[in-house]
Amino acid sequence: xxxxxxxxxYEWLTKPTGDPFVDIGGFVIxxxxxxxxxxxxxxxxxxxTHIYVNKWDNNLHSFFLNSTITHNKNKGQKGIxxxxxFYKGLIEEExxxxxxxxxxxxxxxxxxxxxDNHIMSGSGALINFHHGFxxxxxxxxxxxxxxxxxxLGVEQLGDKVVIVFSNNQYVSHYFVQKNLEQNLxxxxxxxxxSILKSDFSNPANALFDYANQCIENVKSAxxxxxxRRSNTKGITLNLFHFTNYQAKPTIDLYTxxxxxxxxxxxxxxxxxxxxxxxxxANYRKFENYAxxxxxxxNQTYSEKVTEFIVISKKKVLxxxxxxxxxxxxxxxxxxxxxxxxxKSQSDCYIFSKTEFDYWKQSKFYKEWKKENESFxxxxxxxxxxxxxxxxxxxxxxxxxxxxxxxxxxxxxILPEILKWNEKHSFNFEITKKYQIHIMNMNSETxxxxxxxxxxxxxxxxxxxxxxxxxxxxxxxxEIRSFLIRQIDKNYKEGNEKLISLNDYxxxxxxxxxxxxxxxxxxxxxxxxxxHENNISIYEENEExxxxxxxxxxxxx
Length: 556
Known about the structure:
Organism: Dysgonomonas termitidis
Radius of gyration: 29 Å
Number of strands: 15
Protein name: Type I-B CRISPR-associated protein Cas8b1/Cst1
Distance between the termini: 61 Å
Largest sheet: 5 strands, mixed
């Protein structure tokens, strides 16, 4: 970069600060200056300003409120001129004060920053929001300049902008560079109309997809092939889902802790088939909705309905252009609809009426409708009994995943593993790693679980009865009585001790352990060993009374 301005500390245009917004802007500047070393910082400011105004039609409302670009009066060339004048004024230190930058910590000239030039900041009028009743957060010119470059390094996810930021600089840099390069390709091809749009609309699912991209593409976030040890130790992923739009700026933070990231990386790297089969069977349209049934053979979800919604493909395309509307419904097929009056035909997408009605109750729709009353959503309800089928490409990006949600919320996924493992093979190493690394269980406890499970399986005559006793146990005393019976039987058979008093007190039932965790682990271990040894405890066509019957649906 041409360093022609003596007032700028060029190191602080790209130096990491720990602030996600400022750092992403710095990564963008660093990339652009490497591509164009003969350009000055004002040249780069002018270049991105032309993109925002001429290519993106001033559409930076999710970043800056009433700025030199986003204000309604600043369309076209006027917006460009005002923006360049503002940043030239920063460089020339107009209206500057002496102080410390709130982000870089450097002493020097600082400027008042508000929602018009800084992302997710308080308005200048709200002086009680800022330190010492100042007119805004006081930042250096370098920090404010970096903010302008942020939109090129991020993407839109649903109704808000998403920033992926890690405590590992290489991981953060990877996502910024990926987004920036895609933006530049689209701009060169003349197809870029706004910031990049993610195919995902569910932030939790997107976060695990970002983790997967790290595992596949970032060397510092992969697993050592020789030692089979994860290099993700200590790496955390943070997803900032935000909007600075008008009177309702909001930001939601989703964090993938280092320990979960490391566990997920091992699952993807060494047990991918088992892990993916397990997680894909645990999607729901929304919380507490169980109407859709998973089809393992086709990896689809289906549900039988007596009515559904059809919307023309053109209207759906129009609806998806409204970022804040978050029209993220999963399509369940296509149909040609004939208008009874005009006899005209239109190609339509099919949607679940339940999902459509649920979406219309959301805050996204209600807020959008207030501002777009004249924009109708022409749809037709068709009363007909059909089976709606949802394909993988849709539900993995839009629906709620119970496993991912529980991992992020630090809730146990053991019940889901148990339910799946009863009828499907699921490598017990995954369960062991989960219990040790996520749930902080002593590895010796799991050795005890495996030893007891082996003994239970060896008693083929009572195997079915023992499994039923474990499944139907509703109190801790029942599990303890069950184990004591096994200890007694083992002793009478003259075998080596099954469980010592120390094992029982220290590893199986230490203070604070929930008895149901021991029960679930015993069942999971038993089921997996049965799968591995191709042992069935039921006669042909026999079902366990405690198992929920599967609902069979056929595709229409």
